[in-house]
């Protein structure tokens, strides 16, 4: 099969994605993670990427490599605050048909809900 | 060990939790999932539970059993729209020290960020 | 719309699902979570449901309500070991076309990989 | 605060991590995702990283940047098979105290379970 000859190592990563993540430090005596979340927000701000904080995580948008880099930096900075283990839950989406920002996605659903009440 | 005698089947589920979930229909020709998301919102509204829509999912709060029931109902209703497979990514949190709503969590981080700028 | 009249509260939860979950205690001084994971395995064993442990989580299969009940019980038992907060990352799947066990899913992919080497 | 002067853009990503991920193509007519999973396995094999397939996802281990690169390449190759949208659920862990492979983690829990039966 031609497929066998393909060089899979040269496949590019996606030019755009969104990642919604929730990072948890493990093995720190404190119950509150708000301090760590605040540190992570600073890393995000420094990245120049667009991001939104919500109650169950943070959504960040941009090129795949940059988005994943900043989440990796977030792990590193939380380790620097003393956490020996850091665990992140993430959902990531990519699409090839169009760019759709976080706001546009929310608006699309709200419009559908509004129209179904007619 | 005393532990071995314990009846693990009678352990109660948590009285309160939050669940942040993102449901995806698989094997439907349409790329847009906004219609399915809108159906899910109706199930949530009927549940009487508190919920918030954001761009990467929905956060719902309440007793464990009720929260999980409504997410299960969401799967069922998306199956009824024609999706043969439904996949959900979820993060769930419980705590025993205090109740903290979704809004309070966001505010706590925003306050920390504001104070660190002083 | 007829849709508006529908009673969304009576929709049943799915008769079968799988849930792959990873539970993390937050705010405990210990870095290791192996003790908590072992407690969770005992709750799972008591449930009578089929489950498999892997390095990044546990997969449990059965009716939606029973699967979610046992994961809720897992939260409760980890709280009982002293964790004030417990956070779980979960992915859940349901399908209406056929039942497919965890082993069958792995075998299907392995067969595809083997045949693509011909 | 000294903190304010810090250059957050130069923080390195973690030298090691594991990522457990489950990738789902959205908007393809086919219900089966086994073909896409098989393509993803080829991308993983080409990466040289250590990975394990299980019924609810794939666990890959290595330096943060390389692990995230290969998951991004997985998105790209699934787009190339025709999927307009690709959605991944991921959990990622890093630790600074020791390296622990996927097998070691499973063994640790199995040992604890075995010893609790004494």
Automatic annotation (TrEMBL), chains A, B, C, D:
* Matching InterPro entries: MTH1187/YkoF-like, Thiamine_BP, UPF0045_domain
Recite the lineage of the species. Answer: Eukaryota, Fungi, Dikarya, Ascomycota, Pezizomycotina
Q: What is this protein called?
A: Cell wall biogenesis protein
GO cellular component entries: cytosol
User: Residue ranges of the Thiamine-binding protein domain?
Assistant: 19-110
Looking up Pfam families in the UniProt record yields: Thiamine_BP (PF01910)
- What does the similarity note say? Belongs to the UPF0045 family.
């Amino acid at each position: 099969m031609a497929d066998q000859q393909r060089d899979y190592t040269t496949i590019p990563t996606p030019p755009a994605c969104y990642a919604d993540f929730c990072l948890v430090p493990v093995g720190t005596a404190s119950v509150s993670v708000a301090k760590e979340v605040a540190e992570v927000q600073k890393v995000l701000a420094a990245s120049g990427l667009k991001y939104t904080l919500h109650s169950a995580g943070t959504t960040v948008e941009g090129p795949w490599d940059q988005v994943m880099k900043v989440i990796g930096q977030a792990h590193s900075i939380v380790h620097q605050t003393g956490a020996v283990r850091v665990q992140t839950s993430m959902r990531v989406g990519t699409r090839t048909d169009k760019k759709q920002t976080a706001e546009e996605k929310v608006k699309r659903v709200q419009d559908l809900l509004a129209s179904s009440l007619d």
